[in-house]
UniProtKB/TrEMBL annotation:
Domain Tetrahydrofolate dehydrogenase/cyclohydrolase NAD(P)-binding residues, every copy: 140-282
Tetrahydrofolate dehydrogenase/cyclohydrolase catalytic domain boundaries: 6-121
Pathway as given in its UniProt record: One-carbon metabolism; tetrahydrofolate interconversion
Subunit structure: Homodimer.
Gene name in the database record: folD
E.C. number: 1.5.1.5, 3.5.4.9
Protein name in UniProt: Bifunctional protein FolD
Annotated positions binding NADP(+): 166-168, 232
Length: 300
């Protein structure tokens, strides 16, 4: 079998086109320009690249972005004060704190200061809890993008065996919850999982988010499985790869995402979707834009 490529760039382009239309509609009907505040503490080069990409993507679809930079040794209280000020600002519909934060910051305290109605990364405990009980205000962007790619590729989820490799708070755990909420039977593997292959071989849907190049080899994948590779790894020769041995896994899978060009473009795109949904809610008295299991058909 040779897998069909799930092209994240083209799915992302369609969703961004819809974002542009929704932003135009907000402007025309309500005179509202969706606003996203991005806070970055320190000068980590990778974070700076991500922030630049997010700001460019906002400009492309008509979201006004506002960037706030703090020095690496800034006090946590100063950053939290700024978050509270932005939480109260009606021009701001989304607040994002670029991670990771310097070590002297308490992540939960910082994230907890964000107005839950503007938590477009979906990391505030309110939104995490919403996901656990099967409904959510803002789904975290990376797993939200994966769900959209699965839906857009016509992958059936209910009743299938899904295996998530990686159990982080921002990717693996919310991914598992979203799949459970769509009635998949989900296993979650992590660094201490013994004999990873005994789990992955059972997966109809295999989501890999571990950050280990070549972790998943061909024989670990069930024939015909759908494989979503979230991993992003830079090899010593500069090449960007995922967590799967792409060539070998492609020969076993029915569908697969490439790296780059798979999940990556979807993550920033879902941030745009969450920001625009928040702006729409602010015009509609904050009735939930997204309720129930994640995977609303955003794409016609
Ligand atoms: P993370 O916080 O480092 O978590 C990695 C997870 O993978 C942990 O749960 C860890 O297990 C598990 N793991 C590590 N080695 C493993 C192994 N050998 N076997 C099984 N599980 C293993 O990373 P993350 O933030 O979730 O990101 C994961 C990957 O996705 C990274 O490559 C990151 O760059 C990428 N990523 C991509 C996007 C995108 O938009 N495409 C977005 C976010 C992240 P323990 O819990 O036991 O430590």
């Amino acid at each position: 079998m040779t897998a069909t490529i799930i092209d994240g760039k083209s799915v992302a382009a369609k969703v961004r086109w819809q974002c542009r239309e929704r932003a135009d509609e907000l402007q025309a009907r309500h005179g509202v320009v969706p606003g996203l505040a991005v806070l970055m503490v320190g000068d980590d080069p990778a974070s700076a690249v991500y922030v630049r990409k997010k700001i460019q993507a906002c400009a492309d679809v008509g979201i006004q972005s506002h960037k706030f930079l703090f020095s690496r040794d800034e006090k946590q209280s100063v950053v939290i004060d700024k978050i509270r000020e932005l939480s109260a600002d009606p021009k701001i519909h989304g607040i994002l704190v670029q991670l990771p934060l310097p070590k002297h910051f308490d992540l939960q305290e910082v994230l907890g200061a964000i107005d839950q109605e503007k938590d477009v990364d979906g990391f505030h405990l309110y939104n995490v809890g919403g996901l656990v009980v099967g409904g959510t205000v803002f789904p975290p962007c990376t797993p939200y993008g994966v769900m959209l790619m699965l839906d857009n590729s016509g992958v059936e989820i209910a009743g299938r065996n899904a295996v998530v490799v990686g159990a982080s708070n921002i990717v693996g755990k919310p991914m598992a919850l979203m799949l459970m909420n769509r009635e998949a039977t989900v296993s979650v593997c992590h660094a201490k999982t013994r004999d990873l292959a005994q789990f992955t071989i059972l997966a109809d849907i295999l989501i890999v988010a571990a950050g280990c190049p070549n972790l998943i080899t061909g024989p670990m994948v069930k024939s015909g499985a759908v494989v979503i590779d979230v991993g992003i790894n830079r090899l010593p020769n500069g090449q960007l790869v995922g967590d799967c041995d792409f060539e070998a896994v492609s020969r076993r899978a029915s569908k697969i995402t490439p790296v780059p060009g798979g999940v990556g473009p979807m993550t920033v795109t879902m941030l745009l979707v969450n920001t625009i949904s928040s702006a729409e809610r602010s015009c509609a008295d904050r009735s939930p834009a997204i309720a129930g299991a994640v995977g609303a058909a955003l794409i016609d």
